Amino acid sequence: MESVFKDLTTNVYGNPHSQSDSSAATHDIVRDARQQVLDYCNASPEDYKCIFTSGATAALKLVGEAFPWSCNSNFMYTMENHNSVLGIREYALGQGAAAIAVDIEDVHPRIEGEKFPTKISLHQEQRRKVTGLQEEEPMGDVYNLFAFPSECNFSGLRFDLDLAKIIKEDSSKILGASVCKKGRWLVLIDAAKGSATMPPDLSKYPVDFVALSFYKLFGYPTGLGALVVRNDAAKLLKKSYFSGGTVAASIADIDFIKRREGIEELFEDGTVSFLSIASIRHGFKILNSLTVSAISRHTTSLALYTRKTLLALRHGNGSSVCILYGRHDLMEMCHEMGSIVSFNLKRPDGSWYGYREVEKLASLSGIQLRTGCFCNPGACAKYLGLSHMDLISNTEAGHVCWDDQDIISGKPIGAVRVSFGYMSTFEDAKKFIDFVKSSFMSPQNHVDNGNQLKVYPIKSCGGFSASSWPLSNNGSLKHDREWILKSLSGEILTLKRVPEMGLISSFIDLSQGMLFVESPHCKERLQIRLQLDFYDSAIQDIELQGQRYKVYSYDNETNSWFSKAIERPCTLLRYSGSSHDFVLDRTKDIVTCKDTNSAVSFANEGQFLLVSEESVSDLNKRLCSDVQMDMCETEIEINTNRFRPNLVVSGGRPYDEDGWSDIRIGNKYFRSLGGCNRCQVINLTLNAGQVQKSKEPLATLASYRRVKGRILFGILLKYVSVNGEQQQGDSWLHVGQEVHPD
Ligand SMILES: *Cc1c(COP(=O)(O)O)cnc(C)c1O
Q: Where do the structural domains in the chain lie, given as residue ranges?
């Protein structure tokens, strides 16, 4: 900035379109600046020209606007692309061309000397009905455009520029014959991000268009970019507007113009920003003195250090603090990952910290972060696992690019990005990591921290946590598994059979006397009164899976709500308090995992399932070390909720609970009935309205928790008494109470 200031305050720069000495001097400076830009991309002036624009966006827009589209053209672009590239599709579609997004998949491992192990998969072709165009154009030349960033500004993934060569020379091989029957392919690289640490080498790769932005290289000047264009590609562009600067001659009152010959002159409307252009040599001076290869190595090693350190951070309970986006298998190959680290942070219980929260806290520590989708919706959706439905419903829910919403339906809808440049230091990276550690990592479990009380009013459906909850007369948690869903054929529906049941969430407000139920498949929240006399008339005596129950049933409206929620007909029933408890089905559920027909009654057994935080952490550590490292970075991180416990305890050692027989919590006594046998139900991930199945964590549990063919995790408890005496009325359990095994 000092050099720029000195330059502009001591020299006179005239408008380069005039003939004065100062104008001639400006003209020379602009010409030299063009050469510096070409040199930076190693582009020969015989083959390439540098057109100055107002930014990378304007450079991209120029290509879109002037590209020779026809209805036989294709505009193809990678999913990872900036909105400013995606916008080119409006020009393409508007002229009847097809637009197609693609995914580039590197096939690993990459073998030395092998030609190009990349695979391209195509998304659905987009096309618009355009009226007024000739149906079959005369067989003129057909031109197609392929666009990708040299470095993805979301993930930092660097694209192999060999792609440009392959697309141009051998497109049918990689795109499939059907797409590229016709025409010639031109390649556009958005180097706005990538060129700051690794400019494209145009002597090696025959790219037609490269978009650049100078503030991305050295901060100042803003509002100046460039389109580096191959001469033969520039000749194909069709310019329609003319202006001062681009016209050689024109007549005011008739349709006559003669455009200028030079490529730069033809595309630079009006007067170029010559004071900004005069300033870029001061920026290039710094880059060239450091050398691009040193900048690249420096920034890549800072990013690598940051990625590795973040990835290794663990909460006191062993769960991951940070989920990184990008290709970590490529982490060691510095030429494939740039200087970006993109991530989100998680709490010890596996829920997400919103990225806005991270950004706000960081700014309190003097650290400025970029968060959100970084104008790269394709990469954002890809790495965050957001479907078209998610994206559309988030938009309908009122989310726009710049707002404060960062988590919708439990899923982050953007990320946090750290991006290093030549001026970044190791201390910067270190300071950032220290900030993450001190603000988001919870070091040790406090006894109270992990403790939880959980109630599941409807068997197999989602439950809720409470800080205090009463016991019922029979000694279970009040209203726990008091309701069931029954199929038309008379079975009690379970999570194992109907995983969608897990997506139903429920909550009881004792003061309102209401059970609230929600489902991602139902717009309205359902309310069910707890007070019983309401249903007295509906009491029935029914047989379910060989057991007799006294139940209350519900009206059609309630039943159709649940039928919609689980996408199959069913009815809701409520246990009436005599015969066998539905509560017992918790044990039966587990038994029936092995044998669905053995409807065994476990009267008064297994009222509570107890799981320890430490055992869950131990399991998570094993999942991370035994299975590939990936497991720790993805959704597989196991949360205590997976095991549908009623009581979550913490503060002991892993699997201490296996050895407990009698347990006191406050003044209440419980007896252990032994380990809880696990089935595939714990392999269901229920997240943001979706059910996913995997083989974990059961496969890992099976490797070290197998006892006589049963896979045990957590223990079942039965309530015994209060202080050895008979319990009277409701009595309560509280989060934070100490658990004393005898
Ligand atoms: C910043 C950026 C752009 C937009 O550049 P402007 O000069 O700000 O218009 C386009 N693509 C990528 C990859 C970017 O990082």
A: 2-289, 292-440, 448-742
CB 664 within 8 A of CB 656: no
CA distance 424 to 419: 9
pTM, entire model: 0.63
Give every strand in the sheet of 322-325, ordered side by side: 322-325, 340-345, 415-419, 370-372
97 near 67, Cβ under 8 Å? Answer: no
- Burial call 723-736: b when 16+ CB within 10 Å, e when fewer: eeeebeeeeebebe
Q: Which residues contact 417 (CB under 8 A, 6 or more apart)?
A: 154, 340, 341, 342, 369, 370, 371, 374
Decide if 239 contacts 266 (C-beta within 8 A): yes
Q: What is the fold, at CATH topology level, of the domain defined by 2-289?
A: Aspartate Aminotransferase; domain 2 (3.40.640)
How large is the average pLDDT for residues 485-492?
88
The response to whether residue 149 sits with its C-beta less than 6 Å from ligand 1 reads yes
* Mean pLDDT, the chain, integer: 84
550 backbone φψ class: left, alpha, beta (φ>0; ψ -120 to 50)? beta
Structure tokens at 198: 């690794």
User: Any idea of the CA torsion for 551, 552, 553, 557, to the nearest 10 degrees?
Assistant: -150
Q: Which two tokens stand for residue 189?
A: 């690289």
- Is 49 in contact with 228 (CB distance < 8 Å)? yes
Place of tokens 């600046």: 33
Confidence check: pLDDT of 280 > 90: yes
In angstroms, the CA 437 to CA 432 distance is: 9
Residue 9 alpha carbon to ligand 1 centre in Å: 30
What separation in Å is there between the alpha carbon of 445 and the centre of ligand 1? 44
Query: What is the number of other CB atoms lying within 10 angstroms of the CB of residue 444?
Result: 9
Q: How many CB atoms lie within 10 A of CB 676?
A: 23
Q: Which of 153, 215, 373 to mutate to test the pocket of ligand 1 (most atoms within 8 A of CB)?
A: 153
508: alpha, beta or left? (left if phi > 0; alpha if psi -120 to 50): beta
> Which residue among 52, 86, 213, 340 has the greatest number of ligand 1 atoms within 8 angstroms of its CB, and so is best to mutate?
213
Question: What CA–CA distance (Å, rounded) separates 472 from 456?
Answer: 14
Q: How does pLDDT run across 153-189, given as a tens digit for each residue?
A: 999 999 989 889 888 887 777 776 666 567 899 999 9
733 Cβ contact partners less than 8 Å away, ≥ 6 residues apart: 453, 468, 469, 470, 471, 477, 647, 665, 666, 668
Residue type for position 372: G
Residue with tokens 């951070």: 313
Element of type H or E holding 131: none
Neighbours of 443 (CB within 10 A): 11
Instruction: Provide the pLDDT for residue 584.
Output: 39
**360 or 380: whose pLDDT is higher?**
380
- Which atom number of ligand 1 is nearest to the Cα of residue 81? 13
The ligand 1 atom at the shortest distance from the C-alpha of residue 151 is: 13
Distance 211 CA to ligand 1 centre (A): 9
Going by alpha carbons, the residue nearest to atom 5 of ligand 1 is 56
334 as an active site residue: the answer is no
Q: Are strands 690-693 and 739-741 parallel, antiparallel or unpaired?
A: unpaired
User: Domain 292-440: which CATH class?
Assistant: alpha beta
DSSP one-letter code for 498: -
Residue 593: predicted pLDDT: 31
